[in-house]
Each structure stands twice: as C-alpha cells, then as structure tokens.
Amino acid sequence: MNSEEKFAWAGEYVLGTLTYDERQAFERASASDADLAAARRYWENQLAELNDLTPPLAPPRALWDRISVSIAQPSSRNDELLVSLKRRLAGWRTAAMVTGALAAAMVAILLARPEFGPYLDQRNDRYVAVIDQDGDLPALLVDVDLAAGTISIRSVTADAPEGRSHELWYIVPGRDPLSLGLVDRVGMEIIASLEEIPDFQTADVVFAISNEPLGGSPTGAPTGQIVYTGALFPAPGR
Amino acid sequence: MDRLEALLASIADGDRPAFRKLYDAAGPKLYGIVVRICRDHGIAQDVLQDAFLKIWTKAASYDANQARPITWLVSIARNTAIDAIRRSREIPLGMDDEGRSVIDSFGQATSGADPAELLALRRCLDGLERSQQECLLLAYCAGHSREELATRFSAPVGTIKTWLHRGLARLRACLDPAL
Fold first, then answer.
1. Is A17's CB within 8 Å of B49's CB?
2. What angle do helix axes B41-58 and B69-88 make, rounded to 10 degrees?
C-alpha cells in the first residue's frame, strides 16, 4: 500500500465511512504501521475544525450517575480494582471455611485427571489454587510445593485474546500485587522459585489474572480487567 | 498546559473530581457530536458513557504532542459513535434534518466571509466540488455511511467512494501545498 492509499484509507476511517469490519481491519493494521497511524492522526487533527460545526448539547442529568458508577466497577481501573480485590480477599478469609471443602474436592478431581499426573504426589506442604471466572470452568491451576520451594502455574483453558497478554498476580493484603509472569496460551506452564516471592505466605493469598497489553503490564501493576481469580488452599490429602 | 490537558493529567492519576470537571467541560460538546452521528438519544447516551469510560482508562496515553486535548476527546467519542452505528445499523438512512443542518452550518460559516480570513480547512473544503464537499461533511459530522451518501446523491456506492477519495486527496493537496 503506497502513501496515497494509506491517506485515503485513514481518511475514510476518520470520516467514518468504512464498514464495521473495515474499521476493525484498519485499527489492526494501524497498530503495527506507523505511517497509517500518522495518517490517521493527520486527518483527526485537520478535520477537527469541523467539530465546531455541531452545537454543544447538555447530556441528560442522569448520564453522569451512570458514568460515575461505571468507573467504580473493578474492571475499569487499577486502584478500584485493588480495593475490590482486597474486599474479596477479606470475604474469602471467612468464606474459605465454608467453601474450602468444595474447592478442595474440585482440586482433587482435577488433580486426579491423567494430564495432571505429576500433581498426584500430594503432601501436607502443598497448596493449590484453582483460578477461574466466578466459579466457571477452571482457567489455571497453581501448585505450591513448600518442600521443593516451587510454585507452578499451568494454563488449562485460558487463551489470552488476540494481541493481549494474560498476566498472573500474587496478591496479599497490604502489599502491592506481584507479577508472576505471562500465561498467554493453554498448556503454558510457569515454574518459579518461591524465593522470588518476598515473604511468601500461604494464608490470605489470592491469585488473579489480568488482561494486559501484549507483553504484560506497562506499569508493573495490573492495568487491565481482572478476568480470573482464585484463592490458595491446602492441597487435599490422599 | 491548557485546562483540559491538566485535567487529563490528573485523571491519569485516578483523580475523580478532575474527571467530573472534564465531563462538565467537554461533555456537552461530545454529546452534541455523538447525537448528530447516532441520530438517537438512547444510543447516544450509551455511546457517551462508553466514551467517557475509555477516557477514564486511557487518559494516561494522551500525548499533547500528537493532538489538542479536545481533538483527542472528540476522536474517542466519534470513533465510539461510528463503531456503534456501523455495528448495528443495517438499513441506510436517507437525508435527514441533521444532515441538512450540517450543510447549512458549513454554508453559514463560509458565506460572505473574506476567503483570506477563513481557516485553512474551510477554505479548502469550499474549493471542492459541491458533491465531494457535501459527502465529506455529511460523513464526518452526521455519520453518513457510503450507502446513505449513495441514496442521498442518487449515485452508485462505487462513485461515492471515488468522490470521498478524490475529495480527501484534493483537501490534502490544498492543506499541504508542498506535497
């Protein structure tokens, strides 16, 4: 595509005359084509003057309420998200008493499946977490082996969306979330040394997967929507 | 740093009162633009909500070297509006009052003015053939698709596409004569 064609494509994108599919294709292409992105900015800036042709109109009063509620959702923003996670964590401390047995049973079933053969060797110093979306199909399994000093994370069903990364976080109350790495594809496994986690603890731990830009969070803290969460439980004995 | 730019910087740090101030300052402008594109107040309200959510989450990515703050805000709102109508609207709409008022307001903004005092874009748009000029205005300001423009001008969609491309190319040649 030559420069003229790029300006024509970007121009139609900014005018708004592309079909929905063509718009999606343009956005994908301009994400990796600096000339196309520059052509888009050129038209956005040049045509901006036309914005003054349309008179302002006061939005209905209730709209601000909707917007202010929507930015308070945990998915919309990092700080809200952490507050919400901490709240869930507090809930888990009591809920764990009740649901721990259920989760443990679920883990037992998962660990009994042949593909998790290595996990069958259960000892008292093992802890596991099933990371899922509100009790849905398990997305990832976390296995902590205190004796070996390792933490393994395996993605079971969770592929990151095209062009995005799934980042795993270790979260305990009163501390910043710690990234344990990216788990973008089903079958991916991370095995890390527990020594990499300062003051590793097994109580009150929540693991969370956030949806991040490709390559992981640019800030070192979760920036995107939390898509999966799971608490850490003692592994079921055999 | 202008006021909107300062507000965006605060919003990037999670400052909710700043977000409210930005909404009060820019909301009416964005809502007017979005209503004109969506031609439906219900859809326009959903779009504006969605656009402000994007502004809240993307404020840190605003770059003052790339665009003025209001241009950045309008681009987010327009793109959200156009995505919404392109995704949902199947039946091409004909010329309506919003389209008429876009053409009229452009005419009023340019007629009788000394060409030397007109801003470059308006002067260059005024130099286009009428059909090309109206296609660009109706697309940009009133969200007309190629099909809607084809109905409006009783021309095949392929012809509309050609007008749009020629109009854009001539506009660029007029805006940047060095090219």
1. no
2. 130
